[in-house]
Design a protein that fits this description.
Oligomer: single chain
Shape: globular
Order of helices and strands: HHH
Distance between the termini: 35 Å
Amino acid sequence: MILKQHTQYSPKDYAPDGPFAKNSSLPDMSELFQPQENIIRDQLISALIGQEVSDAERQILALPLRHGGLGLTNPRRNC
């Protein structure tokens, strides 16, 4: 019963995508985050690795540490 009481106050923890699911009425704002992605890709990751990264390498680096990435998420995908 205690768990049931707590779940009514935190639906985002139990919903598949939280309160801002892709089918919500919010507009697609991923284009606004492209400049941040360019800085992460072109400056930060290039400085860490010492070379430019391809799209496949960028996807791998966006993975969490436990999956072999660096956890450098793509801000456009989090929108």
